[in-house]
């Protein structure tokens, strides 16, 4: 039939068998997986993407998003109801939404496509919906149906269950809120008389930054009537939690000391920055235990400049000292006595002189992106005419004669 894609029987059976091998799926997730096996691959990719982005966002923090015990990305049964757990639920839910939406727009799934529902409609601002927007509504719907299944399967929802469901939704909303409006102008000479626009998925790193900000402002909650979450605090009037706020139940440990039973790796051995006061600072990561300083010195050439004709002037430094063009970094030109003394010594043997100069020109022309090499006669002629050459010999710190 036209417009209907049929999955070959062997491929269909392979995809269904995949669902039975995934550990930790509840009955509802098994049904969804069997009905949409191709989409589950996108969900799996999204969950992996979420964990990777979590590790990227927290790479400089005491907690660097190490998943406890190598758990399946589909079954984050983290014991603590902390804000770290809240972030993991949100970022994996966002990853599933992002990956499914992306797969729909790319045409990799038969169950969905890009969103053309508003194509051709005009807006009050004078532009028209065009192209094919990323179908974030399908991505959110499928992620909700699959990711929320374990919590929705519980008959009596605990505070932890409500927390997980709320944070899953925060992750999906993060994708929707970060959607970008892209437009293209049409008209004579780019006059933009007509503009067509469509919605585009944000980069997942952008979503990660958004959720990291929510993590920094995560709210500790307590249960209330009608299964709603309220802020926990000493004030009498407790303001309801907003839909986009991450929530947690328990306070976070400091993650300073290793605790294998709780899946805490500690911060011992981590690399820190002693010149900053941010998350990567030694004061924060080392938890007051002190730190060992290791200085790596690396020889580098900077301010390399080719002068015609024919020498290269540069400054030799050892990192981490910054490279500058300060003239104080260069020695004086040699005196005439030094010049003729060096010239006389070199003229005692012409062949080594040519060899030495050829080595110099090899470096100089390589630095100048030139493939032409001068002859020995040209080298000697330039040598006698050019006192400036000795700027190369005497002009840079930590540099000796060739």
UniProtKB/TrEMBL annotation:
Domain of life of the organism encoding this protein: Eukaryota
Keyword Disulfide bond: yes
Function, as annotated: Ligand for members of the frizzled family of seven transmembrane receptors.
Localization terms from the record: Secreted, Extracellular space, Extracellular matrix
Gene3D superfamilies named among the record's database cross-references: 3.30.2460.20
One function term, GO molecular function aspect: cytokine activity
Protein name: Protein Wnt
């Amino acid at each position: 039939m036209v417009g209907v894609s049929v999955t070959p029987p062997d491929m269909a059976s392979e995809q269904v068998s995949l669902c039975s091998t995934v550990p930790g799926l509840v009955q509802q997730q098994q049904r969804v997986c069997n009905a949409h096996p191709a989409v589950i691959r996108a969900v799996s990719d999204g969950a992996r993407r979420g964990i990777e982005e979590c590790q990227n966002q927290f790479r400089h923090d005491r907690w660097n998003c190490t998943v406890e015990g190598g758990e399946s990305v589909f079954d984050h049964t983290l014991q603590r109801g902390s804000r770290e757990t809240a972030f993991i639920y949100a970022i994996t839910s966002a990853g599933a939404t992002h990956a499914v939406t992306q797969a729909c727009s790319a045409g990799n799934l038969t169950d969905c496509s890009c969103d053309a529902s508003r194509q051709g409609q005009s807006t009050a601002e004078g532009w028209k919906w065009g192209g094919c927007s990323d179908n974030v509504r399908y991505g959110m719907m499928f992620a909700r149906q699959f990711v929320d299944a374990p919590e929705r399967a519980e008959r009596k929802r605990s505070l932890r269950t409500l927390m997980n469901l709320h944070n899953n939704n925060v992750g999906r909303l993060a994708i929707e809120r970060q959607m970008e409006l892209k437009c293209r102008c049409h008209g004579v000479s780019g006059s933009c008389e007509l503009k067509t626009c469509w919605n585009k998925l944000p980069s997942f790193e952008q979503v990660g930054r958004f959720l990291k900000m929510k993590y920094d402002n995560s709210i500790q909650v307590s249960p209330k009537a009608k299964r709603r979450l309220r802020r926990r605090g000493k004030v009498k009037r407790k303001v309801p939690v907003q839909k986009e706020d991450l929530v947690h139940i328990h306070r976070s440990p400091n993650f300073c000391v290793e605790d294998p039973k709780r899946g805490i790796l500690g911060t011992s051995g981590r690399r820190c920055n002693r010149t900053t006061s941010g998350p990567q600072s030694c004061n924060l990561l080392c938890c007051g235990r002190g730190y060992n300083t290791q200085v790596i010195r690396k020889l580098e050439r900077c301010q390399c400049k080719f002068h015609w004709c024919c020498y290269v002037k540069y400054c030799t430094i050892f990192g981490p000292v910054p490279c500058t063009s300060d003239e104080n970094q260069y020695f004086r030109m040699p005196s005439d006595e030094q010049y003729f003394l060096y010239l006389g010594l070199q003229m005692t043997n012409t062949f080594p002189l040519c060899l030495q100069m050829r080595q110099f020109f090899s470096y100089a022309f390589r630095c100048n992106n030139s493939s032409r090499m001068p002859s020995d006669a040209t080298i000697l002629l330039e040598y006698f005419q050019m006192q400036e050459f000795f700027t190369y010999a005497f002009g840079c710190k930590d540099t000796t004669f060739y």
